Amino acid sequence: MLFLIAGRASEAAAPHAALALYAASYLAGGTGSALAAWRALRERRIDVNALMLLAAIGAAYLGSWTEGAVLLVLFSTSNALEFYVIGRTRRAIRALMALRPAEALVRHGGHEALVAAGALEIGDIVIVRPAERLAADGMVIRGTSSVDQSTITGEAIPVDVGPGSKVFAGTINGRGSLEVRVTRDPEDTTLARIIAMVEQAQAVQAPAQRLIDRFGQVYALAVVASAAVMYAILAARGIAAGAALYRAITLLVVASPCAVVISTPATVLSAIANAARHGILFKGGVYLERLGAVQTVAFDKTGTLTGGRPVVTDIIPLDGDVRTVVAMAAALEQRSEHALADAVVAACRTRDLAPSAPETFEAVTGRGVRGMVAGHPVRVGSETFFVEEGISIPDGARLSLAALREGGKTPILVGDTRLRGIIAVADAVRPQAGAAVRRLRELGVRRLVALSGDHAQAVRAVAGQLRLDEARGDLLPEDKVRAVEALERSGPVAMVGDGVNDAPALAAASVGIAMGAAGTDAAMETADVVLMGDDLTRLPYAIGLSRRARRVIVQNLAFALTVVAVLVAIVLGAGLRLALGVVGHEGSTVVVILNGLRLLGYRPARMTPAAAGERSRTSRAA
Predict the structure, then answer these.
(1) Residues annotated as part of the active site
(2) 154 lies in which domain range?
(3) What is the pLDDT of residues 391-413, one digit of tens each?
(4) Full 3-state SS string of 194-209
Protein backbone atom coordinates (compact mmCIF):
# COMPACT_ATOMS: atom_id res chain seq x y z
CA MET A 1 0.00 0.00 0.00
CA LEU A 2 2.87 2.41 0.80
CA PHE A 3 4.47 1.71 -2.60
CA LEU A 4 1.14 2.41 -4.28
CA ILE A 5 0.65 5.74 -2.48
CA ALA A 6 4.24 6.80 -3.16
CA GLY A 7 3.95 5.86 -6.82
CA ARG A 8 0.75 7.83 -7.24
CA ALA A 9 2.30 10.86 -5.55
CA SER A 10 5.44 10.85 -7.74
CA GLU A 11 3.76 9.97 -11.04
CA ALA A 12 3.80 13.52 -12.45
CA ALA A 13 7.19 14.63 -11.17
CA ALA A 14 9.21 11.43 -11.59
CA PRO A 15 7.49 8.96 -13.93
CA HIS A 16 10.39 6.48 -13.90
CA ALA A 17 10.46 6.41 -10.11
CA ALA A 18 6.67 6.03 -10.09
CA LEU A 19 6.97 3.05 -12.42
CA ALA A 20 9.47 1.42 -10.09
CA LEU A 21 7.21 2.04 -7.10
CA TYR A 22 4.22 0.60 -8.95
CA ALA A 23 6.30 -2.47 -9.81
CA ALA A 24 7.21 -2.80 -6.14
CA SER A 25 3.52 -2.60 -5.18
CA TYR A 26 2.79 -5.32 -7.72
CA LEU A 27 5.42 -7.54 -6.13
CA ALA A 28 4.21 -6.83 -2.59
CA GLY A 29 0.52 -7.32 -3.35
CA GLY A 30 0.77 -9.98 -6.02
CA THR A 31 3.43 -12.40 -4.79
CA GLY A 32 0.98 -14.42 -2.69
CA SER A 33 -1.57 -14.51 -5.51
CA ALA A 34 1.16 -15.47 -8.01
CA LEU A 35 2.27 -18.41 -5.86
CA ALA A 36 -1.34 -19.55 -5.36
CA ALA A 37 -2.06 -19.18 -9.08
CA TRP A 38 1.08 -21.17 -9.95
CA ARG A 39 0.09 -23.99 -7.62
CA ALA A 40 -3.37 -24.04 -9.21
CA LEU A 41 -1.92 -24.05 -12.73
CA ARG A 42 0.31 -26.99 -11.84
CA GLU A 43 -2.92 -28.80 -10.92
CA ARG A 44 -4.42 -27.67 -14.25
CA ARG A 45 -6.80 -25.22 -12.64
CA ILE A 46 -7.40 -21.53 -13.19
CA ASP A 47 -8.68 -19.76 -10.11
CA VAL A 48 -9.51 -16.22 -9.08
CA ASN A 49 -5.87 -15.61 -8.19
CA ALA A 50 -4.87 -16.16 -11.82
CA LEU A 51 -7.64 -13.89 -13.04
CA MET A 52 -6.55 -11.13 -10.66
CA LEU A 53 -3.02 -11.36 -12.00
CA LEU A 54 -4.18 -11.34 -15.60
CA ALA A 55 -6.35 -8.28 -14.93
CA ALA A 56 -3.48 -6.51 -13.18
CA ILE A 57 -1.06 -7.35 -16.01
CA GLY A 58 -3.63 -6.18 -18.53
CA ALA A 59 -4.09 -2.94 -16.65
CA ALA A 60 -0.32 -2.42 -16.56
CA TYR A 61 -0.05 -3.18 -20.28
CA LEU A 62 -2.61 -0.47 -20.95
CA GLY A 63 -0.89 1.97 -18.60
CA SER A 64 -3.39 1.71 -15.72
CA TRP A 65 -0.84 0.84 -13.06
CA THR A 66 -2.84 2.35 -10.20
CA GLU A 67 -5.83 0.10 -10.82
CA GLY A 68 -3.69 -2.99 -11.02
CA ALA A 69 -1.83 -2.15 -7.82
CA VAL A 70 -5.05 -1.42 -5.89
CA LEU A 71 -6.51 -4.68 -7.14
CA LEU A 72 -3.56 -6.75 -5.96
CA VAL A 73 -3.15 -5.00 -2.60
CA LEU A 74 -6.82 -5.34 -1.64
CA PHE A 75 -7.07 -8.87 -2.95
CA SER A 76 -4.03 -10.02 -0.96
CA THR A 77 -5.50 -8.42 2.17
CA SER A 78 -8.76 -10.32 1.74
CA ASN A 79 -6.91 -13.61 1.27
CA ALA A 80 -5.38 -13.25 4.75
CA LEU A 81 -8.82 -13.95 6.26
CA GLU A 82 -8.97 -17.38 4.66
CA PHE A 83 -5.99 -18.63 6.68
CA TYR A 84 -6.83 -16.94 9.98
CA VAL A 85 -7.86 -20.10 11.80
CA ILE A 86 -5.25 -22.59 10.54
CA GLY A 87 -4.34 -24.99 13.34
CA ARG A 88 -7.51 -24.35 15.36
CA THR A 89 -8.59 -28.00 15.48
CA ARG A 90 -5.12 -29.13 16.51
CA ARG A 91 -5.00 -26.67 19.42
CA ALA A 92 -8.50 -27.63 20.54
CA ILE A 93 -7.64 -31.31 20.65
CA ARG A 94 -4.43 -30.61 22.59
CA ALA A 95 -6.45 -28.67 25.18
CA LEU A 96 -8.80 -31.62 25.62
CA MET A 97 -6.03 -34.21 25.74
CA ALA A 98 -4.35 -32.31 28.58
CA LEU A 99 -7.26 -33.22 30.87
CA ARG A 100 -6.30 -36.88 30.89
CA PRO A 101 -3.74 -37.87 33.55
CA ALA A 102 -0.79 -39.83 32.22
CA GLU A 103 -0.79 -42.46 34.99
CA ALA A 104 -3.16 -44.15 37.42
CA LEU A 105 -2.58 -45.95 40.72
CA VAL A 106 -4.01 -49.46 40.30
CA ARG A 107 -4.53 -52.11 42.97
CA HIS A 108 -3.58 -55.63 41.83
CA GLY A 109 -4.22 -58.23 44.49
CA GLY A 110 -2.47 -57.01 47.63
CA HIS A 111 -0.17 -54.45 46.05
CA GLU A 112 -0.47 -51.10 44.27
CA ALA A 113 1.31 -49.99 41.10
CA LEU A 114 1.39 -46.98 38.79
CA VAL A 115 0.34 -47.84 35.24
CA ALA A 116 -0.16 -45.76 32.11
CA ALA A 117 -3.71 -44.41 31.94
CA GLY A 118 -3.99 -45.71 28.38
CA ALA A 119 -3.27 -49.26 29.59
CA LEU A 120 -6.21 -49.45 32.01
CA GLU A 121 -8.67 -52.27 31.42
CA ILE A 122 -12.30 -52.77 32.37
CA GLY A 123 -12.45 -54.17 35.89
CA ASP A 124 -9.22 -52.56 37.15
CA ILE A 125 -9.44 -50.93 40.58
CA VAL A 126 -8.02 -47.41 40.49
CA ILE A 127 -7.14 -45.57 43.71
CA VAL A 128 -7.87 -41.84 43.42
CA ARG A 129 -6.27 -39.67 46.08
CA PRO A 130 -7.53 -36.23 47.16
CA ALA A 131 -7.21 -33.46 44.53
CA GLU A 132 -6.25 -35.95 41.80
CA ARG A 133 -7.83 -36.05 38.34
CA LEU A 134 -9.62 -39.30 37.52
CA ALA A 135 -8.00 -41.40 34.79
CA ALA A 136 -11.01 -43.46 33.70
CA ASP A 137 -14.78 -43.69 33.65
CA GLY A 138 -15.96 -46.02 36.35
CA MET A 139 -18.00 -46.74 39.47
CA VAL A 140 -16.99 -45.92 43.03
CA ILE A 141 -16.69 -49.10 45.11
CA ARG A 142 -15.17 -47.64 48.26
CA GLY A 143 -14.87 -44.20 49.85
CA THR A 144 -16.83 -40.94 49.78
CA SER A 145 -15.85 -37.57 48.38
CA SER A 146 -16.97 -34.61 46.31
CA VAL A 147 -16.00 -34.62 42.63
CA ASP A 148 -15.76 -31.55 40.41
CA GLN A 149 -17.47 -32.79 37.23
CA SER A 150 -17.66 -29.40 35.51
CA THR A 151 -15.37 -30.57 32.69
CA ILE A 152 -17.98 -33.17 31.69
CA THR A 153 -21.40 -31.99 32.89
CA GLY A 154 -20.76 -28.26 33.30
CA GLU A 155 -22.25 -28.40 36.80
CA ALA A 156 -20.69 -25.68 38.95
CA ILE A 157 -21.23 -27.41 42.30
CA PRO A 158 -19.12 -30.55 42.98
CA VAL A 159 -21.12 -33.76 43.20
CA ASP A 160 -21.02 -35.89 46.35
CA VAL A 161 -20.11 -39.46 45.42
CA GLY A 162 -19.92 -42.74 47.29
CA PRO A 163 -20.18 -46.49 46.61
CA GLY A 164 -22.29 -47.02 43.48
CA SER A 165 -21.75 -43.51 42.05
CA LYS A 166 -20.59 -43.09 38.45
CA VAL A 167 -17.50 -40.96 37.85
CA PHE A 168 -15.79 -39.73 34.68
CA ALA A 169 -12.25 -39.45 33.38
CA GLY A 170 -10.89 -35.91 33.49
CA THR A 171 -12.92 -34.88 36.56
CA ILE A 172 -11.23 -33.77 39.81
CA ASN A 173 -11.57 -35.56 43.14
CA GLY A 174 -12.14 -33.52 46.30
CA ARG A 175 -10.90 -34.25 49.81
CA GLY A 176 -11.82 -37.90 50.14
CA SER A 177 -9.99 -40.96 48.84
CA LEU A 178 -11.84 -43.16 46.35
CA GLU A 179 -11.50 -46.60 44.87
CA VAL A 180 -13.01 -46.78 41.40
CA ARG A 181 -13.72 -49.85 39.26
CA VAL A 182 -13.03 -49.05 35.60
CA THR A 183 -16.15 -49.55 33.47
CA ARG A 184 -14.92 -48.27 30.09
CA ASP A 185 -11.78 -48.68 28.02
CA PRO A 186 -9.57 -45.56 27.85
CA GLU A 187 -10.50 -44.93 24.21
CA ASP A 188 -14.21 -45.10 25.05
CA THR A 189 -14.38 -42.72 28.03
CA THR A 190 -16.71 -39.75 28.00
CA LEU A 191 -13.70 -37.44 27.61
CA ALA A 192 -12.38 -39.49 24.68
CA ARG A 193 -15.77 -39.25 23.00
CA ILE A 194 -15.73 -35.47 23.50
CA ILE A 195 -12.39 -35.34 21.70
CA ALA A 196 -13.68 -37.49 18.83
CA MET A 197 -16.83 -35.41 18.45
CA VAL A 198 -14.85 -32.17 18.27
CA GLU A 199 -12.69 -33.64 15.50
CA GLN A 200 -15.67 -34.92 13.52
CA ALA A 201 -17.86 -31.84 13.92
CA GLN A 202 -15.10 -29.46 12.83
CA ALA A 203 -14.24 -31.59 9.81
CA VAL A 204 -17.71 -31.19 8.29
CA GLN A 205 -17.19 -27.44 7.88
CA ALA A 206 -14.58 -27.85 5.14
CA PRO A 207 -16.83 -28.57 2.07
CA ALA A 208 -18.32 -25.07 2.13
CA GLN A 209 -14.89 -23.55 1.42
CA ARG A 210 -14.33 -26.01 -1.44
CA LEU A 211 -17.63 -24.86 -2.97
CA ILE A 212 -16.41 -21.25 -2.98
CA ASP A 213 -13.17 -22.32 -4.67
CA ARG A 214 -15.05 -24.19 -7.39
CA PHE A 215 -17.23 -21.15 -8.13
CA GLY A 216 -14.17 -18.93 -8.43
CA GLN A 217 -12.56 -21.33 -10.90
CA VAL A 218 -15.66 -21.45 -13.09
CA TYR A 219 -15.90 -17.65 -13.14
CA ALA A 220 -12.21 -17.22 -13.95
CA LEU A 221 -12.36 -19.72 -16.80
CA ALA A 222 -15.45 -18.02 -18.19
CA VAL A 223 -13.81 -14.57 -18.22
CA VAL A 224 -10.55 -15.75 -19.77
CA ALA A 225 -12.44 -17.79 -22.37
CA SER A 226 -14.69 -14.84 -23.20
CA ALA A 227 -11.72 -12.54 -23.76
CA ALA A 228 -10.01 -15.12 -25.97
CA VAL A 229 -13.19 -15.75 -27.97
CA MET A 230 -13.72 -12.02 -28.49
CA TYR A 231 -10.18 -11.61 -29.77
CA ALA A 232 -10.60 -14.55 -32.16
CA ILE A 233 -13.95 -13.31 -33.49
CA LEU A 234 -12.69 -9.76 -34.06
CA ALA A 235 -9.52 -10.98 -35.72
CA ALA A 236 -11.56 -13.30 -37.96
CA ARG A 237 -13.70 -10.34 -39.02
CA GLY A 238 -10.60 -8.56 -40.29
CA ILE A 239 -10.15 -6.15 -37.42
CA ALA A 240 -6.53 -5.26 -36.80
CA ALA A 241 -4.77 -7.42 -34.24
CA GLY A 242 -3.94 -4.43 -32.08
CA ALA A 243 -7.53 -3.23 -31.99
CA ALA A 244 -8.83 -6.75 -31.34
CA LEU A 245 -6.38 -7.19 -28.48
CA TYR A 246 -7.43 -3.80 -27.13
CA ARG A 247 -11.11 -4.89 -27.07
CA ALA A 248 -10.23 -8.28 -25.52
CA ILE A 249 -8.13 -6.69 -22.78
CA THR A 250 -10.89 -4.16 -22.14
CA LEU A 251 -13.33 -7.06 -21.68
CA LEU A 252 -10.88 -8.79 -19.36
CA VAL A 253 -10.53 -5.65 -17.25
CA VAL A 254 -14.24 -4.77 -16.99
CA ALA A 255 -15.25 -8.40 -16.42
CA SER A 256 -12.58 -8.87 -13.79
CA PRO A 257 -14.43 -9.55 -10.52
CA CYS A 258 -12.44 -7.00 -8.53
CA ALA A 259 -15.53 -5.29 -7.10
CA VAL A 260 -17.25 -8.67 -6.66
CA VAL A 261 -14.27 -10.21 -4.87
CA ILE A 262 -13.51 -7.15 -2.76
CA SER A 263 -17.13 -6.40 -1.82
CA THR A 264 -17.36 -9.22 0.72
CA PRO A 265 -13.85 -8.94 2.30
CA ALA A 266 -14.16 -5.16 2.63
CA THR A 267 -17.42 -5.60 4.50
CA VAL A 268 -16.15 -8.49 6.57
CA LEU A 269 -12.89 -6.75 7.50
CA SER A 270 -14.80 -3.68 8.67
CA ALA A 271 -17.26 -5.75 10.70
CA ILE A 272 -14.51 -7.87 12.27
CA ALA A 273 -12.53 -4.74 13.20
CA ASN A 274 -15.64 -3.21 14.77
CA ALA A 275 -16.34 -6.42 16.68
CA ALA A 276 -12.75 -6.62 17.96
CA ARG A 277 -13.04 -3.12 19.40
CA HIS A 278 -16.06 -4.32 21.35
CA GLY A 279 -14.49 -7.51 22.70
CA ILE A 280 -15.87 -9.94 20.09
CA LEU A 281 -13.51 -12.21 18.13
CA PHE A 282 -14.76 -13.72 14.86
CA LYS A 283 -12.47 -16.47 13.63
CA GLY A 284 -13.12 -15.65 9.98
CA GLY A 285 -15.66 -14.04 7.71
CA VAL A 286 -17.65 -17.21 7.13
CA TYR A 287 -18.72 -17.20 10.78
CA LEU A 288 -19.71 -13.54 10.60
CA GLU A 289 -22.04 -14.40 7.72
CA ARG A 290 -23.41 -17.53 9.40
CA LEU A 291 -24.20 -15.76 12.65
CA GLY A 292 -26.40 -13.28 10.81
CA ALA A 293 -28.63 -16.13 9.61
CA VAL A 294 -29.15 -17.69 13.04
CA GLN A 295 -32.75 -17.99 14.25
CA THR A 296 -32.14 -20.20 17.30
CA VAL A 297 -29.68 -19.58 20.14
CA ALA A 298 -28.86 -22.39 22.58
CA PHE A 299 -27.13 -21.53 25.86
CA ASP A 300 -25.17 -23.62 28.27
CA LYS A 301 -26.31 -22.69 31.78
CA THR A 302 -23.31 -22.87 34.09
CA GLY A 303 -20.75 -20.17 33.36
CA THR A 304 -22.80 -18.78 30.48
CA LEU A 305 -26.26 -17.78 31.67
CA THR A 306 -24.97 -17.98 35.23
CA GLY A 307 -21.72 -16.83 36.81
CA GLY A 308 -20.38 -20.36 37.33
CA ARG A 309 -19.76 -19.74 41.04
CA PRO A 310 -22.11 -20.62 43.92
CA VAL A 311 -23.47 -17.67 45.90
CA VAL A 312 -25.91 -17.42 48.81
CA THR A 313 -29.37 -16.51 47.50
CA ASP A 314 -31.60 -17.02 50.57
CA ILE A 315 -31.20 -17.13 54.34
CA ILE A 316 -34.27 -18.44 56.16
CA PRO A 317 -34.07 -18.14 59.97
CA LEU A 318 -36.25 -20.62 61.86
CA ASP A 319 -35.07 -19.88 65.41
CA GLY A 320 -33.10 -16.64 65.57
CA ASP A 321 -32.28 -13.99 63.00
CA VAL A 322 -30.44 -13.91 59.67
CA ARG A 323 -27.16 -12.71 61.17
CA THR A 324 -27.15 -15.46 63.79
CA VAL A 325 -27.79 -18.19 61.21
CA VAL A 326 -25.11 -17.06 58.75
CA ALA A 327 -22.55 -16.49 61.54
CA MET A 328 -23.12 -20.00 62.95
CA ALA A 329 -22.65 -21.55 59.50
CA ALA A 330 -19.59 -19.48 58.59
CA ALA A 331 -17.84 -20.39 61.87
CA LEU A 332 -17.50 -23.98 60.66
CA GLU A 333 -17.50 -23.42 56.89
CA GLN A 334 -14.37 -21.26 57.13
CA ARG A 335 -12.51 -24.49 57.94
CA SER A 336 -14.19 -26.49 55.16
CA GLU A 337 -12.83 -26.99 51.64
CA HIS A 338 -16.22 -27.72 50.09
CA ALA A 339 -17.21 -25.48 47.15
CA LEU A 340 -20.29 -24.23 48.98
CA ALA A 341 -18.30 -23.19 52.04
CA ASP A 342 -16.75 -20.18 50.32
CA ALA A 343 -20.22 -18.87 49.41
CA VAL A 344 -21.37 -19.07 53.03
CA VAL A 345 -18.23 -17.35 54.38
CA ALA A 346 -18.55 -14.62 51.71
CA ALA A 347 -22.19 -14.02 52.73
CA CYS A 348 -21.10 -13.64 56.34
CA ARG A 349 -18.42 -11.10 55.49
CA THR A 350 -20.70 -9.04 53.25
CA ARG A 351 -22.84 -8.51 56.37
CA ASP A 352 -19.79 -7.18 58.22
CA LEU A 353 -19.68 -10.24 60.48
CA ALA A 354 -16.44 -11.89 61.58
CA PRO A 355 -17.03 -15.65 61.98
CA SER A 356 -15.91 -17.09 65.31
CA ALA A 357 -13.09 -19.62 65.41
CA PRO A 358 -14.38 -23.13 66.22
CA GLU A 359 -12.84 -25.04 69.14
CA THR A 360 -13.32 -28.32 67.28
CA PHE A 361 -14.06 -29.16 63.65
CA GLU A 362 -14.95 -32.40 61.87
CA ALA A 363 -15.96 -32.88 58.24
CA VAL A 364 -18.35 -35.70 57.38
CA THR A 365 -17.59 -36.22 53.68
CA GLY A 366 -20.63 -35.91 51.48
CA ARG A 367 -22.87 -34.88 54.39
CA GLY A 368 -21.70 -31.78 56.25
CA VAL A 369 -19.53 -30.49 59.09
CA ARG A 370 -19.82 -30.46 62.87
CA GLY A 371 -17.89 -28.76 65.66
CA MET A 372 -17.93 -26.68 68.83
CA VAL A 373 -18.29 -22.90 68.58
CA ALA A 374 -18.19 -20.77 71.74
CA GLY A 375 -18.84 -23.90 73.79
CA HIS A 376 -21.92 -24.93 71.82
CA PRO A 377 -22.29 -27.75 69.27
CA VAL A 378 -22.93 -26.55 65.72
CA ARG A 379 -23.90 -28.58 62.67
CA VAL A 380 -24.01 -27.44 59.05
CA GLY A 381 -24.96 -29.73 56.18
CA SER A 382 -27.60 -31.56 54.20
CA GLU A 383 -31.03 -32.71 55.29
CA THR A 384 -29.74 -36.28 55.40
CA PHE A 385 -26.93 -35.20 57.70
CA PHE A 386 -29.33 -33.58 60.18
CA VAL A 387 -31.54 -36.66 60.20
CA GLU A 388 -28.50 -38.85 60.91
CA GLU A 389 -27.53 -36.47 63.73
CA GLY A 390 -30.96 -36.94 65.29
CA ILE A 391 -32.13 -33.35 64.75
CA SER A 392 -35.79 -33.10 63.83
CA ILE A 393 -36.90 -31.05 60.82
CA PRO A 394 -40.29 -29.33 61.27
CA ASP A 395 -42.90 -29.60 58.55
CA GLY A 396 -42.60 -25.90 57.77
CA ALA A 397 -38.88 -26.30 57.19
CA ARG A 398 -39.51 -29.25 54.87
CA LEU A 399 -41.84 -27.08 52.79
CA SER A 400 -39.11 -24.43 52.56
CA LEU A 401 -36.57 -27.07 51.52
CA ALA A 402 -38.88 -28.34 48.79
CA ALA A 403 -39.49 -24.82 47.50
CA LEU A 404 -35.77 -24.06 47.37
CA ARG A 405 -35.02 -27.26 45.47
CA GLU A 406 -37.86 -26.50 43.07
CA GLY A 407 -36.18 -23.19 42.40
CA GLY A 408 -32.93 -24.95 41.49
CA LYS A 409 -31.14 -24.02 44.73
CA THR A 410 -29.03 -26.14 47.08
CA PRO A 411 -30.22 -25.86 50.70
CA ILE A 412 -27.76 -25.96 53.62
CA LEU A 413 -29.21 -26.63 57.07
CA VAL A 414 -27.76 -24.84 60.12
CA GLY A 415 -28.35 -25.79 63.75
CA ASP A 416 -27.04 -26.88 67.12
CA THR A 417 -29.28 -29.23 69.10
CA ARG A 418 -32.16 -28.14 66.87
CA LEU A 419 -32.58 -26.63 63.42
CA ARG A 420 -31.89 -22.88 63.50
CA GLY A 421 -32.17 -21.93 59.85
CA ILE A 422 -31.63 -22.72 56.18
CA ILE A 423 -29.16 -21.14 53.79
CA ALA A 424 -29.79 -21.56 50.04
CA VAL A 425 -26.90 -21.53 47.59
CA ALA A 426 -27.17 -21.39 43.81
CA ASP A 427 -25.24 -20.44 40.72
CA ALA A 428 -26.75 -16.98 40.20
CA VAL A 429 -27.91 -15.67 36.83
CA ARG A 430 -25.52 -13.16 35.27
CA PRO A 431 -26.68 -9.56 35.76
CA GLN A 432 -26.64 -8.92 31.99
CA ALA A 433 -28.42 -12.13 30.96
CA GLY A 434 -31.94 -10.69 31.10
CA ALA A 435 -31.05 -7.68 28.95
CA ALA A 436 -29.23 -9.91 26.45
CA VAL A 437 -32.22 -12.23 26.09
CA ARG A 438 -34.57 -9.29 25.61
CA ARG A 439 -32.34 -7.77 22.93
CA LEU A 440 -32.13 -11.10 21.10
CA ARG A 441 -35.92 -11.16 20.97
CA GLU A 442 -35.92 -7.64 19.53
CA LEU A 443 -33.44 -8.74 16.85
CA GLY A 444 -35.91 -11.41 15.75
CA VAL A 445 -34.26 -14.52 17.19
CA ARG A 446 -37.20 -16.91 17.29
CA ARG A 447 -36.07 -19.56 19.76
CA LEU A 448 -33.97 -19.41 22.92
CA VAL A 449 -33.00 -22.70 24.59
CA ALA A 450 -30.97 -23.73 27.66
CA LEU A 451 -28.92 -26.94 27.29
CA SER A 452 -27.04 -28.00 30.42
CA GLY A 453 -25.48 -30.91 32.21
CA ASP A 454 -26.79 -29.49 35.48
CA HIS A 455 -29.89 -30.85 37.20
CA ALA A 456 -33.02 -30.36 35.13
CA GLN A 457 -34.71 -28.57 38.01
CA ALA A 458 -31.94 -25.97 38.23
CA VAL A 459 -31.96 -25.48 34.45
CA ARG A 460 -35.72 -24.95 34.40
CA ALA A 461 -35.44 -22.41 37.21
CA VAL A 462 -32.88 -20.32 35.31
CA ALA A 463 -34.82 -20.63 32.04
CA GLY A 464 -38.00 -19.53 33.78
CA GLN A 465 -36.30 -16.50 35.29
CA LEU A 466 -35.00 -15.45 31.87
CA ARG A 467 -38.16 -16.48 30.00
CA LEU A 468 -36.43 -18.85 27.60
CA ASP A 469 -38.50 -21.03 25.29
CA GLU A 470 -37.04 -24.40 26.34
CA ALA A 471 -34.86 -25.89 29.06
CA ARG A 472 -33.11 -29.27 28.98
CA GLY A 473 -30.97 -30.55 31.83
CA ASP A 474 -29.00 -33.66 32.83
CA LEU A 475 -27.29 -33.64 29.42
CA LEU A 476 -23.93 -35.25 28.75
CA PRO A 477 -21.82 -33.81 25.90
CA GLU A 478 -23.21 -36.26 23.34
CA ASP A 479 -26.74 -35.35 24.45
CA LYS A 480 -25.99 -31.68 23.79
CA VAL A 481 -24.76 -32.52 20.31
CA ARG A 482 -27.96 -34.44 19.55
CA ALA A 483 -30.02 -31.55 20.92
CA VAL A 484 -28.19 -29.05 18.70
CA GLU A 485 -28.63 -31.29 15.66
CA ALA A 486 -32.36 -31.56 16.38
CA LEU A 487 -32.65 -27.77 16.69
CA GLU A 488 -30.84 -27.30 13.39
CA ARG A 489 -33.63 -29.10 11.55
CA SER A 490 -35.54 -25.84 11.92
CA GLY A 491 -32.66 -23.59 10.78
CA PRO A 492 -29.18 -22.37 11.75
CA VAL A 493 -28.31 -22.59 15.45
CA ALA A 494 -25.78 -20.67 17.54
CA MET A 495 -24.51 -22.52 20.61
CA VAL A 496 -23.08 -20.44 23.48
CA GLY A 497 -20.91 -22.14 26.11
CA ASP A 498 -17.76 -21.94 28.16
CA GLY A 499 -16.72 -25.42 29.28
CA VAL A 500 -14.92 -28.45 27.89
CA ASN A 501 -18.23 -30.29 27.97
CA ASP A 502 -19.63 -27.65 25.58
CA ALA A 503 -16.87 -28.13 22.97
CA PRO A 504 -18.64 -30.85 20.90
CA ALA A 505 -21.88 -28.85 20.79
CA LEU A 506 -19.96 -25.67 19.87
CA ALA A 507 -18.32 -27.51 17.00
CA ALA A 508 -21.57 -29.14 15.84
CA ALA A 509 -23.60 -25.91 15.80
CA SER A 510 -23.83 -23.63 12.77
CA VAL A 511 -21.91 -21.11 14.89
CA GLY A 512 -20.16 -21.94 18.16
CA ILE A 513 -19.75 -19.03 20.58
CA ALA A 514 -17.47 -19.21 23.63
CA MET A 515 -17.45 -16.98 26.71
CA GLY A 516 -13.79 -16.00 26.60
CA ALA A 517 -12.94 -14.69 30.05
CA ALA A 518 -14.30 -17.66 31.98
CA GLY A 519 -14.21 -20.21 29.17
CA THR A 520 -11.84 -23.16 28.97
CA ASP A 521 -9.12 -23.29 26.32
CA ALA A 522 -10.98 -26.12 24.58
CA ALA A 523 -14.19 -24.09 24.32
CA MET A 524 -12.41 -21.00 23.02
CA GLU A 525 -10.36 -22.92 20.47
CA THR A 526 -13.38 -24.91 19.26
CA ALA A 527 -15.73 -21.95 18.99
CA ASP A 528 -16.15 -19.87 15.83
CA VAL A 529 -16.80 -16.68 17.80
CA VAL A 530 -15.34 -15.73 21.19
CA LEU A 531 -16.86 -13.15 23.53
CA MET A 532 -13.68 -11.93 25.20
CA GLY A 533 -15.43 -11.00 28.45
CA ASP A 534 -18.25 -12.23 30.64
CA ASP A 535 -20.77 -9.68 29.34
CA LEU A 536 -23.60 -11.51 27.58
CA THR A 537 -24.85 -8.27 26.00
CA ARG A 538 -22.00 -8.71 23.51
CA LEU A 539 -23.94 -11.62 22.01
CA PRO A 540 -26.84 -9.54 20.61
CA TYR A 541 -24.27 -6.95 19.51
CA ALA A 542 -22.46 -9.66 17.52
CA ILE A 543 -25.69 -10.93 15.96
CA GLY A 544 -26.87 -7.42 15.10
CA LEU A 545 -23.51 -6.62 13.52
CA SER A 546 -23.57 -9.89 11.55
CA ARG A 547 -27.04 -9.19 10.20
CA ARG A 548 -26.05 -5.70 9.12
CA ALA A 549 -22.94 -7.15 7.45
CA ARG A 550 -25.04 -9.68 5.53
CA ARG A 551 -27.27 -6.89 4.23
CA VAL A 552 -24.25 -4.84 3.15
CA ILE A 553 -22.71 -7.88 1.41
CA VAL A 554 -25.93 -8.42 -0.57
CA GLN A 555 -25.99 -4.73 -1.52
CA ASN A 556 -22.36 -4.83 -2.63
CA LEU A 557 -22.70 -8.01 -4.64
CA ALA A 558 -25.84 -6.79 -6.37
CA PHE A 559 -24.20 -3.48 -7.27
CA ALA A 560 -20.89 -5.01 -8.37
CA LEU A 561 -22.50 -7.68 -10.54
CA THR A 562 -24.81 -5.12 -12.12
CA VAL A 563 -21.88 -2.87 -13.02
CA VAL A 564 -19.94 -5.81 -14.47
CA ALA A 565 -22.96 -6.90 -16.49
CA VAL A 566 -23.56 -3.39 -17.88
CA LEU A 567 -19.90 -2.82 -18.77
CA VAL A 568 -19.57 -6.24 -20.41
CA ALA A 569 -22.76 -5.64 -22.42
CA ILE A 570 -21.38 -2.31 -23.68
CA VAL A 571 -18.02 -3.82 -24.60
CA LEU A 572 -19.69 -6.69 -26.47
CA GLY A 573 -22.26 -4.49 -28.14
CA ALA A 574 -20.88 -1.11 -29.11
CA GLY A 575 -17.36 -1.18 -27.76
CA LEU A 576 -16.04 0.88 -24.88
CA ARG A 577 -12.98 3.01 -24.45
CA LEU A 578 -10.60 1.44 -21.99
CA ALA A 579 -10.45 4.61 -19.93
CA LEU A 580 -14.22 4.56 -19.42
CA GLY A 581 -14.10 0.85 -18.64
CA VAL A 582 -11.41 1.47 -16.04
CA VAL A 583 -13.42 4.34 -14.54
CA GLY A 584 -16.57 2.21 -14.32
CA HIS A 585 -14.73 -0.80 -12.97
CA GLU A 586 -12.63 1.15 -10.50
CA GLY A 587 -15.60 3.30 -9.50
CA SER A 588 -17.68 0.24 -8.61
CA THR A 589 -14.77 -1.06 -6.54
CA VAL A 590 -14.51 2.20 -4.61
CA VAL A 591 -18.27 2.27 -4.00
CA VAL A 592 -18.44 -1.25 -2.57
CA ILE A 593 -15.36 -0.65 -0.41
CA LEU A 594 -16.80 2.56 1.02
CA ASN A 595 -20.14 0.84 1.61
CA GLY A 596 -18.37 -1.94 3.47
CA LEU A 597 -16.28 0.47 5.51
CA ARG A 598 -19.48 1.93 6.95
CA LEU A 599 -19.53 -1.03 9.31
CA LEU A 600 -16.52 0.41 11.14
CA GLY A 601 -18.97 2.88 12.64
CA TYR A 602 -21.77 0.40 13.33
CA ARG A 603 -23.63 0.92 16.59
CA PRO A 604 -26.60 -1.15 17.73
CA ALA A 605 -30.03 0.36 18.12
CA ARG A 606 -30.55 1.88 21.56
CA MET A 607 -31.96 -0.56 24.11
CA THR A 608 -35.71 -0.16 24.51
CA PRO A 609 -37.12 0.87 27.90
CA ALA A 610 -38.51 -2.66 28.28
CA ALA A 611 -35.09 -4.21 27.76
CA ALA A 612 -33.49 -1.76 30.15
CA GLY A 613 -36.12 -2.59 32.77
CA GLU A 614 -35.54 -6.29 32.27
CA ARG A 615 -31.80 -5.82 32.79
CA SER A 616 -32.43 -3.89 35.99
CA ARG A 617 -34.84 -6.53 37.34
CA THR A 618 -32.42 -9.36 36.54
CA SER A 619 -29.57 -7.52 38.23
CA ARG A 620 -31.60 -7.01 41.40
CA ALA A 621 -32.72 -10.66 41.40
CA ALA A 622 -29.14 -11.86 41.07
Answers:
(1) 300
(2) 102-134+137-183
(3) 999 999 999 999 998 888 889 99
(4) HHHHHHHHHHCCHHHH
